[in-house]
Please model this.
Amino acid sequence: MLETVKPYLWPVLFGVIVVAVLPLLAGYVVLLERKVMADMQARLGPMRVGPHGLLQPIADALKLLIKEDIVPLNADRVIFWLAPVLSVTTALVAYAAIPFGPGFQIADMNIGLLFILAVSSLGIYGIVLGGWSSNSNYSLMGAIRSVAQLVSYETAAGLALISALMMGSSLSLRALVMAQQNQGVWFIFCVPIAFFIYLVASIAETNRAPFDFPEAESELVAGYMTEYSGFRWSLYFLAEYANMIIVASVATTLFLGGWLRPLASVHLQIPGTRMEILDLIPPLFFLALAGYCVLRAPRQPVAVQKVFMLLVAGFCLLLAAALGWSLTSAEFLPAIHGAFWFLAKVFVYIYAFLWIRFTFPRYRFDQLMNLGWRILIPLALTNLVGVGVALVLHSARGWGLFPAFLLTTLATLAVAGFLVNEGDKRLKVVAVGANGE
Amino acid sequence: MNGAGALDQVFFYFFAALAVVSSVLMVTRRNVIHSAIFLITALLATAGIFLQLQAEFLFAVQIILYVGGIMVLFIFAIMLVHQDVSLKQLRYSRQKWVAGVLGVILVAEFWFALDKGGSLFHPGAPISGGLQPNTEQVGQALFGGYMLPFEIASVLLLVAMVGAVVMAKRRI
Model:
């Protein structure tokens, strides 16, 4: 009996960890978002709950849980209840295929990437059915917009991902990271255009500004979740942030080297030991963070906050100790440091999301469609041909990796310039035609 | 029978029952959206059976194309239809008796064929360990052995797509 259960032990444990930690992580991404927004608008952001608002996500979650749960009149009750659950389940299931570290992955499937695409395409139903079942025009409009947007941008995102697949020649996410390790280069440096297309498409797929049409406040109140409140609303919110973390994880795995450290093929050893200088970065980072917290603690206004700040410093010290201790053991070094680098890259990607959100104004819906169908999809197709040509040049003609990809990237950029130019001309023609009629 | 085999059976009957029940519910529901949801469930159950047969590529493609693509467009179209109108409309044509007789004939035919020629059907022996690696094998089959049919099908789809665009747009 034990022998049959044994292979499922680690996956189940990892699954429980992911499901338990992810909502917390999503909550702190919200806090990060509010802090970054405040910073960009020269404000302080949440400051009251915990030092620098560090306990704000927990307070918000508690508030949401005890709010009244309202079901609108004439709503389709069963579907109204089902929709948010569907949203959050599909978002969480997608984590099954993501490798957080060399050993930290729930399941290494040989269709890993297809699995993530399949499961996240199921997530659309959460939005659509929620919008439809609420019996409200705002919700319905939000749902319809979301379908149009997701269907348009899924194509571009899929085509962008294919270039990374061609580079790594596998669908398993772990194999893709290993391919980046073996080739000694992150795929973003080979196929930067594919990465850019995926960045834009993933913003549109997660309904983030400047493409947040399904929930555009000034037009649709809150879009598909207008009629939701309390716990169900928070499920939608959780699903949205979980999806953000998923697209960031996919981009990290495919383009940014997954759990690999920056300059993974450079080995600068400290004289006399087996430790590498670059491996010292993670523990030193947390050490610096702990030092900063200790320095700031006396300046907190309330005694409780001073104590809490010191607790945060202690937590950082603990992490630094764990990362530092793993330097001495060859067994744990890749696992723990891998997870650190993976999460660091995911946060950089999410920071780019936030940065874009607070920098660009919202597009118009027809602009969104034009960008998707007239520019991104043709560009992605051209890029795909370019990647194929470069791979042939590299493997059959013996060109170096960089000259081959530089050539095709420049060619693709030329096509992109042509597309944008033509699109502008066409739009002008349409505008003139509209005025003339 | 070992433990894994029993688990396989449980999964097979679960997915098969799910597919059959949701197909029936799809036909009998009055609400169009409910019908669509049951159709999605039936398609997902089919995907589950693919996975259980260790055809994981088909499983993923079934979900991405049918559930994530085609059904989304179905629901998109249904949502734009006014519910009250569709509820009042007649759903079945009045040819119950014809359908019943045809159904009985079909069942009789199947029964006859299986009864007389059952020994002629040879289910192939299962390949041990499934078709690993799945995606590569599908790709090699499509672009190797079945290149011409594959390309003909693509051209056909392209023609259909261009035709749809031409018919939908008044001015090109």
Q: What stands out?
A: The two ends of chain A are 78 Å apart (CA to CA). Chain A touches chain B through 27 residues (CB under 8 Å). Chain A is about 70% helix and 0% strand.
